[in-house]
Amino acid sequence: MRALDGDEALGLAVAALGLVVLVVLIPLGIDLSEVDANTRLLIRPDFWPSVLACLMVAAGFGFFAARRFGKRSNGKPGAADGIRISARGALAVAAVATLLAAADEETGLLVPAMIAFLVASFAFGTEHRLAKVMLAIAVPVVLVLFFERVANISMPLGSVVERLVGG
Questions:
Q1: Burial level of 130, CB count in 10 A (0-12/13-18/19+)?
Q2: Is this structure's pTM higher than 0.70?
Q3: C-alpha gyration radius of the chain
Q4: How many CB atoms lie within 10 A of CB 89?
């Protein structure tokens, strides 16, 4: 059995972090005192963080498995084609986390989320620049519309966005 390479270790670390968030941080950090039997699942304060933590675990294990058991196009065992993590990618993840943590009443979540998606998309993946920019704008807008209209959960848009849309 061969030793773990850096990307395999990164995949396992992401999965472990997701498990810590799911098992430790969510129960400690989310107040469920106002949740009762009549509270709908989509508006429980622990539901969406739990979903994201589970996705983080799945992505970490998926990345590990792709790197460990994938085959290159030349037939040699190793990394699956198209999956790569670099120092630039790790810095992009740190930048995304910083941008989202910097959200406040002035910026809200929408603008930092768009910037975070843009930074992350240019750090990873393909050369389709127009698609990256379109997704960086569309994904946060669709998420905000989902939470506002479908889940009936108010999202902090920030005073900058509210002034732009006349809200």
A1: exposed
A2: no
A3: 19
A4: 15
